[in-house]
Design brief:
420 residues; alpha/beta; 434 Repressor (Amino-terminal Domain); Endonuclease, Chain A; 3 domains; six-stranded mixed sheet; 6 strands
Length: 420
C-alpha cells in the first residue's frame, strides 16, 4: 500500500473532512478510532490498517477500498517525497480566504517559472479521486431499505427508537426503509452497529449496496436471510471455493430432485425458508447465478456416505451420480471422496466452506454450515484452522482418477439394483 497515505490525504481534502470528523463518524459507527491514528495514516507513519478500518474509511469517504489502497500513479524515491510535500502545502492552505489563495497561487506560479517548470504539471494524476458515489437507483434503494428494515425488526427496535438513538434529524428511518431516500454509507454503518450486526462480512455485504458498488441482486430479496445473502454475495465474488460436506452432495452440484430431497430431510429452515419449494428455488438460483467466466475453481470434498445415504429414490440417486461424474470432468472442478473404509483423516467438524478472492487486500473467509444458520468467520487465525483441516483432507482423500472409480462403483451398484 505504497500510496495509501497520499490517497487518504487526497480523499479527506477533496471531500472536505478533517481527521477529527472522520474519527468521530467511524467511532459512532462502531469502529473506535482516534484523530491521532487518522493523522498517522494520513502521513504514512502507520501503514497497516485493518480491513475493517479500510472499509470504514472507504465508506465514509465514498471511495472503493481498491482505490484507497491502489498503486498506479505514484513513483518511488524523491518524486514521491516531493509530491507528498506538495500535498502538505495544499493542506496548509485549507481555510484561507479567496484573496489569500490568489496570492498563494501567484507565488506558486512565480516559483514554477523560476525553476523552469511549465504552468501546469506535465504529469497528471491518473488515479485522481473518483467522484462521490452517484445516487442509488430505485432497485438499490428498495433493496437496501428492505434489508435495513428486516435488521431493525430483528433487533426489536422501533423506527422512533432508532431515530432517537442516532440523534434528531440524523436519519428518516421510514423513508429509508421504504426506499424513498438513500442513507449515507456512514449512516448505514451506524445503523448496523445499532442493530447488533458485528460480523464484518455481513456489514460489508450491506455496505457494498449502500455505497452503490453493486446492483441489487436476487439474494437481496427480503425473504433471503442476511447471513445467507452474505454467503451468496461472497460466493459470487470468489475465485476459489473449497467445501467439505459430510451428509449431502454440495448444493452447487445438486440436481433439483436431489436438492428437494435433501431439503425435505434437513428442513427448509436450513435456508431460512418456510417451505421446501422456496428453499429449492434458492439452490437453483444460486447455481444459475454462479459466475462461469471469472476463472472460478470449485474444490469439493465429500464423505463417501453421501453416495450411499438413501434420501431419494434410486433413479434420482443414479441421476445425481451421473451429474457428479459430469462435474468431475470439468477442468475447474476438483471433486474428492473421503473413503468409509479406513479413512486417514476426518476432521471433528460439520460441513464448511472457504472462499478466496481476487483482491490482494481481501483475506479468505470461512463459513460453518449450521442447523438453522451459517456462521461466517473472518478472523485470520480461525480461518487458518479450517484451511489446515481442508489441506489434510485433500491429501488423504481420493485422487481425481480414484474419484471416478468410486463414483462409477456406486453407479454400477445402483444400476444393478434397478436391473439396468
Amino acid at each position: 500500500m505504497a500510496n495509501f497515505a497520499e490517497r487518504l490525504d487526497l480523499a479527506l481534502t477533496k471531500r472536505g473532512y478533517t481527521g477529527a470528523q472522520v474519527a468521530a463518524a467511524l467511532t459512532e459507527a462502531g469502529i473506535p478510532i482516534t484523530r491521532a491514528y487518522i493523522s498517522q495514516l494520513r502521513t504514512g507513519k502507520q501503514t497497516n490498517p485493518t480491513l475493517q478500518v479500510l472499509r470504514a474509511l472507504a465508506s465514509c469517504l465514498q471511495v472503493s477500498v481498491g482505490w484507497l489502497v491502489g498503486d498506479d500513479y505514484l513513483e518511488s524515491g524523491s518524486v514521491e517525497d516531493l509530491q507528498l510535500r506538495a500535498a502538505s502545502l495544499g493542506l496548509a492552505a485549507s481555510g484561507l480566504s479567496e484573496s489569500s489563495l490568489e496570492v498563494l497561487r501567484g507565488v506558486v506560479e512565480l516559483a514554477r517559472k523560476a525553476e523552469g517548470l511549465p504552468e501546469e504539471p506535465e504529469r497528471e494524476r491518473t488515479a485522481d479521486i473518483p467522484d462521490a458515489v452517484a445516487p442509488l437507483s430505485d432497485p438499490q434503494r428498495r433493496a437496501l431499505g428492505k434489508r435495513l428494515h428486516g435488521l431493525r425488526v430483528s433487533a426489536g427496535l422501533s423506527a422512533e427508537q432508532v431515530e432517537t438513538a442516532l440523534g434528531k434529524g440524523a436519519a428518516a428511518i421510514p423513508a429509508i426503509e421504504e426506499g424513498r431516500i438513500a442513507p449515507a454509507p456512514i449512516t448505514v454503518e451506524r445503523l448496523l452497529t445499532l442493530y447488533g450486526v458485528t460480523a464484518p462480512p455481513i456489514r460489508e455485504y450491506v455496505l457494498s449496496l449502500a455505497r452503490g458498488e453493486r446492483e441489487a441482486a436476487w439474494y437481496d430479496a427480503q425473504t433471503v436471510p442476511v447471513w445467507l445473502a452474505t454467503g451468496y454475495a461472497l460466493e459470487q465474488r470468489a475465485t476459489v471455493i473449497r467445501s467439505y460436506h459430510t451428509q449431502f452432495v454440495p448444493p452447487l452440484l445438486q440436481t433439483e430432485e436431489y436438492a428437494r430431497a435433501a431439503i425435505t430431510v434437513a428442513g427448509p429452515a436450513t435456508y431460512g425458508q418456510q417451505t421446501v419449494d422456496e428453499a429449492v428455488a434458492l439452490v437453483m438460483a444460486r447455481q444459475e447465478a454462479l459466475p462461469r467466466d471469472n476463472g472460478l475453481v470449485l474444490w469439493a470434498v465429500i464423505d463417501e456416505s453421501v453416495l450411499t445415504r438413501s434420501i431419494v429414490g434410486r433413479h434420482v440417486q443414479l441421476r445425481q451420480l451421473d451429474v457428479l461424474l459430469e462435474h468431475a470432468k470439468r477442468p475447474n472442478v476438483s471433486l474428492h471422496v473421503v473413503p468409509m473404509d479406513d479413512p486417514v483423516y476426518v476432521p471433528r467438524t460439520g460441513p464448511f466452506t472457504i472462499w478466496r478472492f481476487a483482491e490482494a487486500y481481501e483475506p479468505d473467509i470461512a463459513c460453518v454450515h449450521g442447523i438453522e444458520s451459517d456462521t461466517l468467520i473472518s478472523d485470520a487465525a480461525s480461518v487458518e484452522v479450517y484451511h489446515q483441516a481442508f489441506t489434510k483432507l485433500s491429501v488423504t482423500t481420493t485422487t481425481r482418477d480414484e474419484t471416478f472409480e468410486v463414483l462409477n462403483q456406486h453407479r454400477e451398484r445402483l444400476s444393478r439394483s434397478l436391473g439396468k
